[in-house]
C-alpha cells in the first residue's frame, strides 16, 4: 500500500518517526511529507533514513514529477500526525501553500488526521469547527489522547500512541479496500489477517450483588484492546466484546459492550458463528451470586450477616470451542490464562493443563498478581500451542505482545 505520512509542526512530530517505522516494517511504501515547521522539530535526514525516499516540502521541488498532484493522486492512504491546529485550519480552508496541503486536496483515498495541540487550542470553537468541516467531508479525524502535555499541565491534546494511529489508519484503509474488493468481486485487503473476521473479548466482567455492589476483577482491558488493534492493523474485520474497559477501544472495530459473564457469553456465542477467529482475552468471572437483591443490602445490628451464595458461570471458552466443533468449521480459537503458581505446580504447568482442558488452538499464559499485568502497560506471556509447537515467550509492551499473538493466530489460520 502506498502511504503518504504528513507531519505537522508540533513537538509530537518525533512520535511520527515511530509511526513511519510501523508502516515500513509492515511492508508499506511510505512517503514522508513534513511541513517546514515540522522540520524544526525533526530534521529531513530522519524522514529520509526511515522512509528510504527523498523528502520534499514545497510545491516547487521535483516539479518535473508534478509532485504536488502525483502524491495525493497515487496514494492509497494519507495519514497526518501530528495535525496541529494550524494544519487543521489550512486543510479545512482548502489551502494549497505547501506540498502537504496540496496532497490533501488531491487525495481521493482514506485520510486520517491525528490532532495534537494544547488543550485550550483543541477546545477552541475555531478548531472544533474546522474538525467538524473535515469530518463532514469524510476525513477521519481522531480525537486526541488525554494526559501530560508539553508543560506541567495535562488534558486532551496529546497525540495518540503511534500504534493506535497505525491501527486506526489500516482499519480505515482495509475497510475501504474491502468495499472496493466487494464491488470488483475479488479478495479484499492485505496483511496477515486480510479478509478475516476476528472477534475479541476484553476487560473484566462484573457480577451484580445488589444495585450498588458487584463481584469483579482487576482487568483493565488493555491487553484485549491491544489484540483488537493489532488484528485491525493486520487487515482483519474486528468485533470487540468489551466488559468495563479502562482504555478507549480502537477506531475501526465494531464495539459490543457487556456487563456480566452471562452477557459476554451470549455476545460471543452469537458473533462467533460468522468469525474466522476468536480471541478470548477478557477476564470472565468464574462465579456469580446465586441471588441478586433489587435493593441495597443493609448492615443490621439486629440480624446476622447473610452469606453470599455463589454459583458457577459457564465456561465461555469451552463453549466456543464446542460450538466450532459442532459446526465443523476451521475457526481458530485463542484463549488467555491469567495464572498463579502454588505448591502443586507452576504457572506453565497450570497453563498446559488448561490448554488440554479447553481445547483451543493457542493459549496465552501470564503470571498475574497485585503488582503484575493488571492495569499495567507491560506484559510477559508464554504462548502455548495445541499442535505441540515449542512455547514462545514474549515480553514487552502489551501492543508488542498483541502483535506476537496476531502472528501466531495468522499462522494457525493458514495451517487449518
**Which class do the helix and strand fractions yield?**
alpha/beta
Helical content stands at 25-40%
Total DSSP helices: 13
Largest sheet: 8 strands, mixed
Rg of Cα set:
24 Å
What shape does the CA trace take? globular
Fold-level CATH name of the largest domain: Rossmann fold
- CATH architectural category of the largest domain: 3-Layer(aba) Sandwich
Number of domains: 2
The number of strands is 19
Which oligomerization state do the chains in this entry correspond to?
single chain
CATH superfamily of the largest domain: CoaB-like
Q: Low-confidence stretches at least 5 residues in length (pLDDT < 50)?
A: 176-190
* CATH class type of the largest domain: Alpha Beta
Q: Quote the distance from N terminus to C terminus.
A: 27 Å
User: What's the arrangement of strands in the largest beta sheet?
Assistant: 12-11-8-13-16-17-18-19
Query: What percentage of the residues does DSSP assign to strands (E)?
Result: 15-25%
Write the layout of secondary structure elements.
Elements: E1 2-7, H1 13-25, E2 29-34, H2 44-51, H3 67-74, E3 77-83, H4 85-92, H5 99-106, E4 111-115, H6 119-123, H7 125-136, E5 140-141, E6 145-148, E7 154-158, H8 162-184, E8 197-203, E9 207-208, E10 214-215, H9 222-233, E11 237-243, E12 254-258, H10 261-272, E13 277-280, E14 287-289, E15 310-312, H11 316-327, E16 332-339, H12 347-358, E17 362-367, E18 378-385, E19 392-397, H13 398-415
Parallel strand pairs: 1-2, 1-3, 3-4, 4-5, 8-11, 8-13, 11-12, 13-16, 16-17
Antiparallel strand pairs: 6-7, 9-10, 14-15, 17-18, 18-19
Amino acid at each position: 500500500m502506498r502511504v503518504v505520512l504528513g507531519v505537522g509542526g508540533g513537538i509530537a512530530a518525533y512520535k511520527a518517526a515511530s509511526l513511519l517505522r510501523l508502516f515500513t516494517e509492515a511492508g508499506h511504501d511510505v512517503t514522508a511529507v513534513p511541513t517546514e515547521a515540522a522540520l524544526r522539530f525533526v530534521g529531513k535526514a530522519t524522514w529520509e533514513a526511515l522512509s528510504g525516499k527523498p523528502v520534499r516540502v514545497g510545491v516547487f521541488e521535483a516539479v518535473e514529477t508534478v509532485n504536488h498532484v502525483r502524491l495525493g493522486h497515487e496514494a492509497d492512504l494519507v495519514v497526518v500526525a501530528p495535525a496541529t491546529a494550524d494544519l487543521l485550519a489550512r486543510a479545512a480552508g482548502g489551502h494549497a501553500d505547501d506540498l502537504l496541503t496540496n496532497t490533501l486536496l488531491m487525495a481521493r483515498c482514506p485520510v486520517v488526521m491525528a490532532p495534537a495541540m494544547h488543550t485550550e487550542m483543541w477546545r477552541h470553537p475555531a478548531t472544533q469547527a474546522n474538525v467538524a468541516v473535515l469530518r463532514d467531508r469524510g476525513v477521519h479525524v481522531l480525537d486526541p489522547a488525554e494526559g501530560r502535555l508539553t508543560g506541567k499541565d495535562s488534558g486532551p491534546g496529546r497525540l495518540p500512541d503511534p500504534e493506535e494511529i497505525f491501527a486506526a489508519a489500516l482499519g480505515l484503509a482495509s475497510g475501504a479496500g474491502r468495499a472496493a474488493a466487494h464491488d470488483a468481486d475479488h479478495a479484499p485487503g492485505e496483511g496477515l489477517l486480510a479478509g478475516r473476521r476476528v472477534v475479541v473479548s476484553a476487560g473484566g466482567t462484573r457480577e451484580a450483588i445488589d444495585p450498588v455492589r458487584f463481584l469483579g476483577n482487576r482487568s483493565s482491558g488493555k491487553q484485549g484492546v491491544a489484540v483488537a488493534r493489532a488484528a485491525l492493523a493486520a487487515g482483519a474485520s474486528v468485533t470487540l466484546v468489551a466488559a468495563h474497559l479502562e482504555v478507549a477501544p480502537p477506531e475501526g472495530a465494531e464495539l459490543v459492550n457487556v456487563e456480566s459473564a452471562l452477557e459476554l457469553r451470549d455476545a460471543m456465542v452469537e458473533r462467533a458463528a460468522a468469525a474466522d477467529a476468536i480471541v478470548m482475552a477478557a477476564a470472565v468471572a468464574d462465579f456469580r451470586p446465586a441471588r441478586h437483591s433489587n435493593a441495597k443490602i443493609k448492615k443490621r445490628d439486629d440480624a446476622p450477616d447473610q452469606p453470599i451464595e455463589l454459583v458457577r458461570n459457564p465456561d465461555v471458552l469451552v463453549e466456543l470451542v464446542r460450538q466450532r466443533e459442532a459446526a465443523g468449521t476451521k475457526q481458530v480459537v485463542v484463549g488467555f490464562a491469567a495464572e498463579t503458581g502454588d505448591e502443586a505446580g507452576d504457572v506453565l504447568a497450570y497453563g498446559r493443563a488448561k490448554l488440554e482442558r479447553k481445547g483451543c488452538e493457542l493459549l496465552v499464559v501470564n503470571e498475574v498478581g497485585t503488582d503484575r499485568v493488571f492495569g499495567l502497560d507491560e506484559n510477559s506471556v508464554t504462548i502455548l500451542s495445541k499442535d505441540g509447537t515449542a512455547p514462545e515467550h514474549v515480553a514487552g509492551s502489551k501492543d508488542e505482545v498483541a502483535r506476537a499473538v496476531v502472528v501466531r493466530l495468522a499462522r494457525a489460520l493458514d495451517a487449518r
